[in-house]
Design brief:
Distance between the termini: 12 Å
Number of helices: 13
Strand content: 5-15%
Radius of gyration: 23 Å
Order of helices and strands: HHHHEEHHHHHHHEEEHH
Structural class: mainly alpha
Length: about 350
């Protein structure tokens, strides 16, 4: 990676990818290529890659196609509209499915690594796909890694900032407007490298290390928090009635799912950051999980606690339950930011 990898050191340490100071993992060269560019430069690069790939598939002799799906894939790529310079690239789609937007303002198409599912790219005796097509495929993969790394930086920066100001406010800020605003602000810097979100300039080395220690502490023993918080929620449900549940805007199906999940023998509460398609940002989501007879999580017995129900439960809960929920929020946010950054780190197979 380029010499400026030190800019990412605080983020790498804050998310627990360092054994000791000076031993931080690096962002891989493929993702850092895009992180070190502005979005305008990236779009210019993809315009060339798309045009080259489209031109080459248009020239594939028909006798090279061995099955209908090959021709369908080639035809779809050859017929793809021009790349669109969509500045909402951080929020256009789930970052873990991100790609490049093509088409017109009124009719957009997201072309990503997933768009190649119908392409039989590998494992053939006679490859029909050109280097340009493979280059486009891998570039979209590395672009996705870069976008996921940017979101890791946005999440970590806001987690640290929120904890510095008022830790107990963190759960009640669960609508994550802070993440939505931060992503929108990042888009304003059109001439800066998109990786500038990873440098955590306002965060000191000490704050990054303290955040890492806090998250490790929150993660250690948090299984007990899952059980105790869920037990408190189960008790809270005992006092609820249809009037209470309707107050939260739940329909009968949602209410039944919540009651069923929360009334099992040993429910477990888990909090994670999930992508919200409507808000186009990450949002904290709370689940009530239950295990089957073999001890594995049973999807049929899992319910989602609506955010307004969770807020009321949190506000009126005993201090111990608040601490349990707070620990689960920290664990969920930190773990998800770690998984996003991990996609762009150098690993042994790189």
């Amino acid at each position: 990676m380029a010499k400026n990898n030190a800019d990412y050191a605080r983020l790498v340490r804050a998310l627990g990818f360092a054994e000791r100071r000076g031993d931080e993992k690096e962002i891989n060269k493929r993702a850092s290529h895009f992180l070190n560019q502005s979005f305008s430069e990236t779009i210019a690069e993809f315009k060339l890659k798309f045009e080259k790939a489209k031109e080459e598939v248009r020239n594939i002799p028909l006798d090279k196609f061995r099955k209908p799906s090959d021709m369908e894939s080639a035809w779809a790529l050859a017929d793809l509209p021009e790349v669109l310079e969509d500045w909402d690239y951080l929020r256009y789609a789930d970052p873990e499915k991100s790609g490049i937007v093509c088409g017109e303002r009124e009719k957009k198409i997201l072309f990503s690594r997933d768009s190649f599912k119908s392409f039989d790219l590998f494992g053939r005796e006679e490859e029909i796909w050109s280097n340009a097509v493979l280059d486009l495929y891998y570039s979209l993969l590395w672009w996705r890694e870069a976008v996921m790394c940017v979101w890791a930086g946005i999440i970590a920066k806001n987690l640290i900032g929120c904890l510095k100001k008022k830790p107990t406010h963190f759960l009640s800020a669960g609508k994550t407007d802070m993440l939505q605003d931060a992503a929108a602000n990042q888009l304003l810097f059109r001439n800066k490298p998109i990786g500038s979100a990873l440098d955590l300039q306002s965060i000191s080395d000490e704050e990054a290390d303290n955040f890492h220690r806090l998250c490790e502490k929150a993660r250690t023993g948090s299984y007990e928090c899952e059980l105790s918080a869920a037990a408190a929620f189960k008790e809270w449900l005992r006092s609820a009635n249809i009037k209470v549940l309707k107050k939260y805007g739940l329909n009968q199906k949602e209410a039944h799912s919540l009651l069923f999940a929360g009334s099992q023998q040993r429910p477990q509460i888990d909090i994670d950051l999930c992508w919200d398609e409507g808000m186009r940002t990450y949002q904290f989501v709370c689940f009530v999980n239950n295990n089957d007879i073999h001890g594995y999580k049973d999807k049929e017995k899992t319910g989602h606690i609506p955010i307004n129900v969770l807020f009321d439960f949190f506000e009126n809960a005993p201090q111990k339950t608040k601490e349990d929920l707070f620990r689960l929020v920290i664990r969920g946010g930190w773990n998800h930011a770690r998984s996003l950054l991990d996609s762009g780190l150098v690993h042994h197979i790189d």
